[in-house]
From TrEMBL:
This is Cadherin domain-containing protein. PANTHER family: CADHERIN-87A, PROTOCADHERIN GAMMA-A3. Keywords: Calcium, Cell adhesion, Cell membrane, Glycoprotein, Membrane, Repeat, Signal, Transmembrane, Transmembrane helix. It is a single-pass type I membrane protein. Its main location: membrane. Residues 27-133, 134-242, 243-347, 356-452, 453-567, 585-688 form the Cadherin domain. It is found in: Cell membrane. The chain crosses the membrane at residues 688-713. GO terms for biological process: homophilic cell adhesion via plasma membrane adhesion molecules. CDD domains: Cadherin_repeat.
Length: 824
């Protein structure tokens, strides 16, 4: 208990002595501190932030941490004030037994700047261990005839402290026969010897009890004792002598337990029982006592435990040879442990930066590696490597530290992560190696624009589609990840000349779902108004900044049979759908072209293919209609019994499914003379005579006004040529031409049907003649008839002047047609 109190006092005093810690920077850039051992947990070591020039307020942001090699963390860093303090109680004797200077090294890693600072802390010794003896009691048998001055080696005390705190002196308890002599070896070791100063007398005293005290130089001084018992014997005047003063042996560290190291031998010139020698260790440390053993009879020294070069490369032992008379001799044994390659390199990863961006430039640090090999020489030299097919390489940074850096640009779309295997191999024979795997993940960067599945899209939709119908769908993919791969779709609207207020037909016709790329119709399409719709779709990812790609989309509108045929000629002018009167002579031959029904269909394709059909006729079999042409022709000769007025109903039908149709009523008048026509037509409706008189008077008035004007112009040529020629007949012709343009841009031209009418001179009745029609799209202004003069002779005018029932004189066909339309 008193010894424990002395140790505690010693620790407190040592702590007070080393309150001020020495800090300096070595030439190599290292920082060294010095602290005493046995300091309490949390004791101040040094201001690491100040010594390294770091901002103590931002230590945690800089990623400053301690990288130590052992399992036990003896030091810790306070991020609040930047102080380095102890994390565990430090026992110098446990860490550095027998070493004069005890250094503990570790590294300070600044992850933000990837810098490493080496720190060494010297652990100074305090006098916390008292000297002790391996054997608390020794016995010597000394003959009473032993000569004065004879020496007896005593066991050496052990003190794990170093320097002045180790053993400094020995004291022997007071007695009359023995004294203590301290021997010093060349290496500085001391050991005590018991010297016989006064002859022994067994009869006077057979046993002498002595106390050997060993003291250290600490403050306070600590001591240890061993009891020495001297038994007085008779006659033994020769001590054993070893054949060698120093024995040396080398043994590999992997030598099996029980291996014979050497055999020591000593001789004693005495005879009898005094020549019998026993061997034992005189000086051995506690750890070595578990490694070596010696046979007390043969002197064979063998291994009791495993040797380890990394723990101790040299063992120094002392062996004592002692005879039964109590005399002894000693020798020294030096055991050199030969290193073998029994330690594979150890790989630790103090720092790993993962994930890293795919746009990381080459030579960017990814991980920091520490590689240690406890072997020595070439066996401790280590080479490191990574697979050659990976975009990484190793470069040495400091001592046993390596940096794993990028060697070439990374692409997450090709490889999203790497498992990098680092292999460390020493140069032993055979070489030993170890490996560790570092997982490096690659973070995404928005470096890929969306890609459409097609270069362009073409889709079809039938007209009259419902609103909201799906018309097509575009798809784009983005090889990036996360938000960088989230694709949204939008329509690109063209810029219109009207400016911002103008609405694009695309925006009013279609819309697109921003997530799925589905294109929907906002209205019902009409093929007759819109045949195709071209627009562009933009696919944009969610990166920052976003990337986009455009694609062209063509939407074709397909036709449906939703338009009935439209009859253009003959045009309907009445509510019942009937048209004007068409004329045909009763003397017509079969196949005579009466008129033509012209129709168009706004649809396209087979929906616009038209066919014509005669649904109804006054005289069945008299007329026929061309199926494709729509021409109404006589199918047979006109009979006397056939009525003057023929009503025909023509059906026009398209080829759609289902087909649509339209009909028109055509009235055909069969007559050879104008009076016959007039008489028949006058009976068709009441008040017709009144309309006829007005029409004839109007036309005749206009004609005679025109005639008088022309007569005045020809008076100048009266003498050279007669004004009027007898026997002349007036000719007139009309050119009704109709031209139509369909919505498809295809022009449909109507055949012009020209009718010529003439009055025969010298007759009281006018005869109406129907020459064959001219089937052309353009008509000549006049027909040749033997007299080009557009006027009648004077005799014809006078001959017909008294006939009030008929129209006299020639008149233009335009006026005739106008008249026919009025009376119809």
């Amino acid at each position: 208990m008193a010894a424990g109190q002395r140790v505690g006092d010693c620790s407190r005093r040592a702590l007070l002595c080393f309150v001020l810690v020495a800090v300096w920077e070595a030439v190599s850039g290292q920082i060294r501190y010095s602290i005493p051992e046995e300091m309490q947990k949390g004791a101040f070591v040094g201001n690491i932030a100040k010594d390294l020039g770091l901002d103590q307020k931002g230590l945690s942001d800089l990623g400053v941490r301690i990288v130590s090699r052992g399992r036990t963390q003896y030091f810790a860093l306070n991020f609040q004030n930047g102080y380095l303090h102890t994390a565990e109680r430090i026992d110098r004797e446990q860490l550095c037994a027998g070493v004069e200077t005890c250094l503990m090294s570790f590294e300070i890693l600044v992850e933000n700047t990837v810098k490493i600072f080496s720190v060494e802390v010297e652990i100074t010794d305090v006098n916390d261990n008292a000297p002790s003896f391996t054997n608390r009691e020794l016995a010597f048998e000394i003959s009473e005839t032993t000569a004065l001055g004879n020496r007896y080696a005593l066991q050496e005390a052990q003190d794990t402290d170093v320097g002045v705190n180790s053993i400094q002196s020995y004291f022997l308890s007071s007695n009359k026969h023995f004294s203590l002599d301290i021997q010093r070896e060349a290496g500085g070791d001391t050991y005590p010897e018991l010297v016989l100063e006064k002859p022994l007398d067994r009869e006077e005293k057979s046993v002498h009890d002595l106390i050997l005290t060993a003291t250290d130089g600490g403050d306070p001084v600590l001591s240890g004792t061993s009891r020495i018992r001297v038994i007085v014997l008779d006659a033994n005047d020769n001590a054993p002598v070893f054949t060698q003063t120093i024995y040396k042996v080398s043994v590999p560290e992997n030598a099996p337990i029980g291996s014979l190291l050497l055999t020591v031998s000593a001789t004693d010139h005495d005879e009898g029982i005094y020549s019998e020698i026993t061997y034992s260790f005189q000086k051995i440390k506690e750890k070595e006592s578990h490694i070596f053993q010696i046979d007390s009879k043969t002197g064979e020294m063998t291994t009791l435990g495993h040797l380890d070069y990394e723990e101790a490369a040299l063992h120094e032992l002392e062996i004592q040879a002692k005879d039964l008379g109590g005399l002894s001799g000693r020798c020294k044994v030096l055991v050199t442990v030969v290193d073998v390659n029994d330690n594979a390199p150890q790989i630790t990863v103090p720092s790993l930066f993962s994930p890293i961006s795919e746009n990381t430039p080459p030579r960017t640090g990814v991980a920091l590696l520490n590689i240690q090999d406890r072997d020595s020489g070439e066996k401790g030299e280590v080479t490191c490597s990574v697979p050659a097919n990976l975009p990484f390489r190793l470069q040495k940074s400091l001592d046993n530290y390596y940096s794993l850096v990028t060697e070439r640009p990374l692409d997450r779309e090709l490889v999203s992560g790497y498992n990098v295997t680092i292999t460390a191999t020493d140069r032993g024979n055979p070489p030993l190696s170890s490996s560790t795997t570092v997982s490096v993940q690659i973070s995404d960067r928005n470096d890929n624009a969306p890609i459409f599945s097609q270069k362009s899209y073409t889709s079809y939709v039938r007209e009259n589609n419902p609103r909201g119908a799906l018309v097509c769908q575009v798809r784009a993919s983005d090889p990036d990840w996360g938000e960088n791969a989230r694709v949204t779709y939008s329509l690109l609207l063209p810029l219109l000349p009207g400016g911002e207020g103008s609405e694009s037909p695309v925006s009013s016709s279609i819309s697109i779902h921003s997530e799925s790329g589905a294109v929907y119709a906002l209205r019902s399409f009409d093929y007759e108004q819109l045949r195709e719709l071209r627009f562009q779709v933009q696919a944009q990812d969610g990166g920052s900044p976003p990337l986009s790609t455009n694609v062209s989309v063509t939407l074709w509108i397909l036709d449906q049979n939703d338009n009935s045929p439209e009859i253009l000629y003959p045009a309907s002018s009445r509510r019942d759908g009937s048209t004007g009167v068409e004329l045909a002579p009763r003397s017509s031959e079969p196949g005579y072209l009466v008129t033509k029904v012209v129709a168009v269909d706004a649809d396209s394709g087979q929906n616009a293919w038209l066919s014509y059909q005669l649904l109804k006729a006054t005289e069945p079999g008299l007329f026929r209609v061309g199926l494709q042409s729509g021409e109404i022709r006589t199918a047979r000769s006109v009979l006397d019994k056939d009525a003057l007025k023929q009503s025909l109903v023509v059906l026009v039908k398209d080829n759609g499914q289902p087909p649509l149709s339209a009909s028109v009523s055509v009235t055909v008048v069969l007559a050879d003379s104008l009076p016959q026509i007039l008489s028949e037509l006058s009976s068709l409706s009441p008040g017709l005579t009144l309309y006829l008189g007005i029409a004839v008077a109007s036309v005749s008035g206009l004609f005679f006004s025109f005639l008088l004007g022309l007569l005045a112009l020809r008076l100048r040529r009266w003498r050279n040529s007669p004004l009027l020629e007898s026997g002349a007949s007036g000719n007139f012709s009309g050119v009704p031409v109709s031209q139509f343009v369909g919505i498809d841009g295809v022009r449909a031209f109507l055949h012009s049907y020209s009718q010529e009418a003439s009055l025969t001179a010298g007759s009281r009745k006018s005869q109406l003649h129907f020459p064959q029609p001219n089937y052309s799209n353009t008509l000549s202004s006049q027909m040749s008839s033997g007299n080009n003069d557009p006027f009648l002779s004077a005799e014809d005018i006078k001959a017909n002047d008294g006939n009030r029932d008929y129209v006299t004189g020639p008149f233009p066909i335009t006026g005739y047609c106008l008249w026919l339309n009025m009376i119809s």
